[in-house]
Amino acid sequence: MAVIAFKYYVVAHGRHPGIYPTWTACQQEVHNFPQARYKGFNDLIAAQAWLKNPVWLETKKPTFSQFQADSDSQTAEIKIWTDGGSRNHGNRLNQHVKVNDLAAWAYLVKFDHQQYVDSAGEFGATNNRMEIMALYQALIFLIKQNWQQKSIVVILDSRYVLNAITQHWLNNWQKNGWKTASGQPVANQELWQKLAKVLVGFPKLHFIWTKGHANDHGNVFVDHLLNQTMDQMRVKQN
Could you tell me whether strands 205-209 and 78-87 are parallel, antiparallel, or unpaired per DSSP bridges? Predict the structure, then answer.
């Protein structure tokens, strides 16, 4: 079960079933406990009711409704800034991305007074694809460091990526066979599918939207980094 900041944590099947006020206390009761069953609530009455009758809807597919958009990043152990960009005709009315158009993504990870950055580019990719790729690559980096269980906040300026994760679009796309509400195939489907598999491995992942290219130093940094990448791509292209 994924963990977010609930007021109450109910352990229905663990070392000592009951209601706990913090995730730390709950985790001690369920960690490495066979077939542990637990759930978070913000309402005490609902928590008490679930403890008496712990109904759990099993599903073989991951869901993403646990991820939230927050306004505070002060308590996170790891902070991530991601950004994607493109210099293509797809940003203009009635024109499309061309195979030689420049696009790039970048991320900045801050943890334990250290910074980790990466960036890469593609030809002929859209801005939205690069926004998804930036988040995906940042999470892959965390997996390689074995940091999935830490509290993490992602700061990004893409409403497209933010809403897909926190407004349940991603969950609904998966339920609908990767079709939109209008029945159209989801754009960037293969990349969303890869991201979906990765997201469920991060139990304490939160998101914050920031205005692009404004006063957030991390956002400005990754924007500058991805533009450097596109500049280098242009030199090689010429």
Answer: unpaired
Q: Do the Cβ atoms of 86 and 102 come closer than 8 Å?
A: yes
Beta-carbon contacts of 138 under 8 Å, excluding residues fewer than 6 positions away, are 80, 82, 107, 109, 118, 154
Q: CB atoms < 10 A from the CB of 219, how many?
A: 21
The bridge status of strand 205-209 relative to strand 68-69 is parallel
CA distances from 207 to 1, 51, 77, 79, 146 (A): 18, 30, 13, 10, 20
Tokens at 153, concatenated: 């906040």
What would the DSSP string read from start to end of 174-207?
HHTTSB-TTSPBPTTHHHHHHHHHHHTT-TTEEE
Q: Are 72 and 5 in contact (CB under 8 A)?
A: no
**Domains of the chain, start order:** 8-52 (3.40.970.10), 71-236 (3.30.420.10)
**Phi-psi sector, 112: left (phi>0), alpha (psi -120 to 50), beta:** left
pLDDT for 1 equals 28
At position 155, the amino acid (one-letter code) is: I
Q: What is the pTM of this model?
A: 0.69
Write the pLDDT tens digit of every residue in 185-209.
999 999 999 999 999 899 889 999 9
